Amino acid sequence: MKQRDDWHLTDLLEYEHGRGDPFAAAVRATRMPMVITDPAQSDNPIVFCNESFQKLTGYTREEIIGRNCRFLQGPDTSIEDVAKVRAAVDGGHDIGIDLLNYRKDGSTFWNALYLSPVRNSDGVIQFFFASQLDVSDRIEAHRIVAEQKAAVDREVEARTADLQAALEAKTLLLHEVDHRVKNNLTMIGSLLRLQARSIADPAITAKLDAMLERVDALSTVHRRLYQSADITRFDVGAFTANLVPDVIGSTGRTDIKLDMHCERVEVPSAWASALGLIVNEVVTNAVKHAYADGRSGKLTVRTEHNGSAAAIEISDDGPGFDELAQRDGLGRVLIKRLAKQVGGTVEWAGAAPGAKVVISFPVERP
Amino acid sequence: MIRLEVPFEVLIVEDEALLAMDIEAMVEDAGHHVVAETASVRELVELVPKRTPTIAFVDIQLAEGSNGFDACRVIQERWAKAVIVFVTANPLQIPDDFCGAHGVIPKPFTRNGLMLAMRYIEEGVCDPPPVAPQPSSFIASPAFAATWH
């Protein structure tokens, strides 16, 4: 008997009888399924398998010994994984891999295979040693987790698509409403302008023009609101910086100098119309009355933001308030009531010469 | 580069009768002439104006389901030298190249805004570059603004 066949004897020996190799006995008795193959024989057959291996696969020792390990493979075993095992055997190195294997009764199990070459003192491979472990539970758990994750992902995707569609519908609706508001404001302006043209009485025309300017101010407020990225906030400073030159420019007058310093003053968009109208009233009044009859001068405009408070200051160097008080009474009432609406106050003061109006208001709702 | 004489011969392409009337009145107040008003691209194609339009104010949403971009192309084909200004409530719809148009007046427009825009365009095409600052009521197309530099 050759030396390499010595271990066969251990199959026949009983350790508890004080004979045989204690290591071989341990391999035979362990819970870990194990096989040993002999690459020196044709097709590298299994030359040893322990009890656990037989239990795991359902085959008897007689059915196992002499066969190549591939008899455990079946139709769903991964061809790529098998190729990796073959490459390890051919290359003489070890490998750990999970393979889908088949029992004798056709049922499947996930086999955590660990295979390593056993070399003699010359470094020549004598055997391959392979241990198996049924990890079906672990693989199954992984599969369930992956399946649940995929299901959650699908659900998230569907919900995201729903929300996206809802958002698109909402955005479309907002654009539509915005478009209609703009068209209606334009038409109101057009109606007033057309009416004003057909009236001969200059007093009535002046009142219609004042109304028109108010509608125009509202239009400008709306346009600015819907042009900005955040439609919940309104920058009174930028609005004022825009409106004042437009009002002066429309008079065609070049003898009214403008000293303007407008800080950014953001307020909730709900206040935009009120503050827009106030600025319009004060500026149009100043331009019309402080510089009436071709009187030239300088209009000073400031918007300031100080912590939770803000102020709009408009001062002219015209004749002062005696003259101011006499004009269209609605303007002053509008300024007072609208300032109160945004929690603010109005102060009229002589600026010697001229008049100064200061509107103070909080920038957040109290 | 387009050089125009004043007064302008204005073409108004707008499907809202009220707005067309209003724009017409303001154009005449500014000292220009309205040569024609059309409400759709079909009307524009069939139009036989008494004089050649030199500037067109074009709404984007037009009658008969037509739109201002098609109107813009028709104007460019028929009156190649005309300055084209969109007048729309939705300026964001306008492509980056403005379809070759010269600018946009956003709706709602105001009397002040439209008058200032017309004065600015007048300066921009009759005696460029414009001296007045660009009013908030008019946005020049990049190509139009580039002719001043």
Termini distance of chain B? 12 Å
Largest sheet of chain B: 6 strands, mixed
Please tell me the overall pLDDT of chain B.
90
Instruction: Spell the H/E element sequence of chain A.
Output: HHEEHHHEEEHHEHEEHEEHHEE
Q: Which structural category fits the helices and strands of chain A?
A: alpha+beta
CATH architecture of the largest domain in chain A: 2-Layer Sandwich
- Which homologous superfamily in CATH is the superfamily of chain B? Response regulator
- What count of helical segments of chain A does DSSP give? 11
Please count the helical segments of chain B. Answer: 5
| CATH architecture name of chain B | 3-Layer(aba) Sandwich
Number of structural domains of chain B: 1
The CATH topology label of chain B is Rossmann fold
The geometry of chain B reads as globular
Oligomeric status: heterodimer
CATH class of chain B: Alpha Beta
By DSSP, the count of extended strands of chain A is 12
Distance between the amino and carboxyl termini of chain A: 102 Å
**Helix fraction of chain A by DSSP (H/I, runs of at least 4):** 40-55%
